[in-house]
């Protein structure tokens, strides 16, 4: 069903109404006025329903299982936070935060992501170690772009590890989770671009960028996934006042990408960089990461890409982004050709496409809540963290497109059995109470079943309803058979015109279970199989 | 872990900050000022975590399965709606609606319940029939009462049937769902109080209440679950200007309760009432309902209670409320005795306790969005609806208390296997990459496992971590055994001091699966069993 339909309706409003928006349209003389408004959801939001909802629930389920497999626990934080909790965390994007009206009491805002509430939760409860996942909606007053799947209300699926651990151990597992999560959803055509903030900072330093300019040059580099180098260089030189030779030196570095091993071998040969304390620390960590990535057998997905910078200020170490050619917005007529799978394409071909998962290490965010001083940089109870956020709406679009291309029919309900009564003529009461009693038996056995909400229903209408539900088994109460303690159980949708199997009423649960098993029909497994692209 | 801990912290703030709440505390001279704020969640909200989260997810899962069993599909609507959608739906309680700040664009408010968004969804998409469930948070600026489980942000679990069907057919199934839902969660000590708005209206009419006074007299009756009859009578006579004889006549009716059969037999003998058109229609429907309730075998839970009125204006037919003695707030020292289960207690003993599920029929709400005129009462595209809302936070409290009384240990993680490396001395590297490789094997097989995030971990710390997680199986990589292609698999928490079973590395998935099966250990089933109170 369409969830974008809108219709203008007229609602009569009394002048006495206490409602603000209605008051606007009414004169204050008590006369009834007409206020017209459009029946729609707010800008940048939508209803989810029907098959889309089944697919999305399948994705959430797959990711929840993944997170649990890795020892994750889930938390649920309020949809709004005290406004001061969010303040100063999102830089320029703070203007996109939704505020709640001041109706007396505290000032609050809708959460902008799940990371800041997580850091607040960790600090507030004095937690020293946790692996938590959180699947929930976040809110951004962005310009919505429905076609690109960018909404003002959208889901994030986050997994984060907080706590002091040996270097790169949780980081490597997060990358394993990223690979396991995407492949588990049938998305295999992706690369993980990764980089290290400390190496990036070291590069800027050895190229001659002043310390106070590092963040803004980093944010210029961050645009390399959308702009060509020449445009980024221009921004560095003209807007951000860097000498051309500084920009050119940076340019030499940020064009590098390849396996961790390859890029490390290039960078470690650069003595200037190796001797830079920040870069040296980053290089050492990347070396450790390489060992763990090999243990997890995920190196084929990884591209160490020095152009990756990531926008958010709070990252302090490893950063990463999973990109797929599939998610590229159509740019030209060759798009379809580009979308075709190729096994040997390198990471550069993925440049410019949207990311489907991203994250990084942020060691100081919890400390901002635990009493750390932002101006001095001194740590309070700082809890290092590393995490990943799956872009579930984009992943949804990929999967939906795949299912459509396979002409796979997703069933919106889980109904397994439709209960029907056949009969007619003199004294026929429609067996409604009898159908209810059979339904009760099946429900009590955990079997999903329905029947037509009609006292006397004709067979055609009942079969139509069963067919519409797409359920595999029919149970039929015949006018003569039922009073003799008998029912028919019939496989539906087989195209065969048989009468089904005549059984004792008492055996209905057992027989239905066996038919469902024979037909290998299981709503959940179907969706799982389908998500995995099997 | 406590989620109510708060700590006052100091955060330095620059006067340049764009943040409103921070600006308040800072002088506008650019000097860094100290702003103190409390690290907490907004009033009436809380974080959910740890075991509470496991129990709550178990409840949601149980109810979702229930709703799917009855042919339900789920929808997801935005957390905020256009303000005019909510306007005029909640009477006096409209003042409890949370508004979003006017930041340019549309005026919006957080949803107050899931029913109005559902009606908006049905009308907007021109849906003629749907069985939908929705588990989501709603928002009310009420005075929070944490001890009673009343919060400003809380979950509702709703199932509603929209569409024109034969009388009382979906209504009866909703009652079956109510019984199945509560008993499926191990709550068996409850009564469903039910009544019919049309009978209630008929009673008021035959008692001499004027048409324009019916709603306010109904709302006085609604207080009978909290006040004695004398207080309600006083309100009717003194505040609502009814003659004493009218109130007394009403009093005769509203004290009636019993089985549908019993109450129907009393009411149908009352000629005045039987001849009232509204009451007659209601009585006919109750007669039909009785047949269906018997088919579903749920009559023992039902009490036809003429004192039930339900606050919301939009109900038009059958109304109901499930109450349990267990949820009674302690009033006196006898409380504990009262809480004890008794099989023969009648419905009157449940009076005054909180309801754990409630709902009713509302045939005109969708029509308000489809173009119906509220002043004239003429219907547009009116879609009759009937639904139930489970009070999941109260049910949560009941279940949690039960688990605590049984000293049942809920595990926060789903971890099944802890992977450990034993060794030491010269050349010992801690087998971290090796543990990762084994973990990868188990994850790929869908098995939940963890290992200590430490390169070289001592055996004691690894066992402690395994024990803390409460997982049933340990996999041990021995310094000598592992290089020979061997592992040990050991059942944990048995108290036995054995060395486990020595196996080939290649067999690890198979052996672990068999151990998990032997131990009959399954996190999900455990919670399910526990929720059912088995």
UniProtKB/TrEMBL annotation, chains A, B:
One of its GO terms (cellular component) is mitochondrion. It is an enzyme of class 6 (ligase). CDD domains: HisRS-like_core (cd00773), HisRS_anticodon (cd00859). GO terms for molecular function: ATP binding; histidine-tRNA ligase activity; sequence-specific mRNA binding. L-histidine binds at residues 113-115, 140, 156, 160, 310, 314-315. Belongs to the class-II aminoacyl-tRNA synthetase family. This is Histidine--tRNA ligase, mitochondrial.
